[in-house]
Design brief:
With about 220 residues, this protein is mainly alpha-helical. The chain has ten helices and three strands. About 60% of the residues lie in helices and about 10% in strands.
Length: about 220
């Protein structure tokens, strides 16, 4: 076959239409066309067409991944899952993820640490909830363990939990019907538990607030 015409697609700028022997042959991105070095008058074989089609699919998968990352950072597993949902082949996904990891655009360790920093800055959560969310986002347990160990110190965690407890306690005290002090203690404890704090941290916070003592559950919650 001989390429007889190359023209820009009217509805999709950045993509070209290749015609061979007077008939439409294949649509290509400008990037792949330039990489292939094809011009009008060049001969093109079925094997070349197959290779160009494969490159085009791979480029499409990479662009899809970059669009997802432009919305927000993602873990490797989450990104792979989203690309599978878009029906890209596993082999192409593996190739794309490899390129993105080499470029530093996908890094589970950095993702986990960034997630923890943002969470603590915007809406502090305890270790339990942080672990749950990172696991849901596809971060490996070992990576989560390292990120939590480096990002959460016991002192900082207790301080954040105490701030949350104080804010919630003020809200309870502003309610029209004041609650029993012991019930308020239970509500504060339950609130911190929902935010993912360990019972050991909750106990420390409750003592610092000088609330009436109340027995904590024997079974401490543990992370996933």
């Amino acid at each position: 076959m001989r390429i007889t015409k190359i023209e820009t697609q009217k509805k999709t700028p950045g993509r070209m239409c290749l015609f061979a022997d007077g008939e439409f042959l294949i649509g290509l991105s400008t990037e792949n066309l330039l990489r292939a070095g094809l011009r009008v008058g060049d001969e093109i074989s079925p094997h070349q067409v197959k290779e160009l089609t494969a490159r085009e699919t791979l480029l499409s998968a990479k662009n899809a991944a970059l669009r997802l990352l432009a919305v927000r950072p993602r873990s490797e597993k989450e990104l792979a899952r989203r690309l599978l949902e878009k029906e890209y082949a596993e082999q192409d996904i593996t190739t794309v993820l490899g390129e993105l990891k080499s470029a530093g655009l996908v890094n589970d360790s950095m993702f986990a640490r960034s997630f923890i920093r943002n969470t603590l800055a915007l809406r502090p959560l305890g270790e339990i909830q942080i672990r749950r969310k990172l696991l849901f986002l596809g971060v490996p347990r070992s990576v989560i363990d390292d990120a939590i160990r480096e990002s959460l110190s016991e002192g900082d965690t207790t301080s954040l939990a105490r701030d949350i407890a104080l804010t919630y306690l003020k809200k309870l005290k502003r309610s029209r019907v004041p609650g029993d002090p012991r019930k308020m203690q239970s509500k504060v404890a339950a609130h911190l538990a929902r935010r993912g704090y360990q019972w050991s941290t909750i106990g420390t916070v409750l003592k610092s607030l000088n609330l009436p003592e109340e027995d904590n559950p024997d079974d401490e919650q543990s992370g996933l």
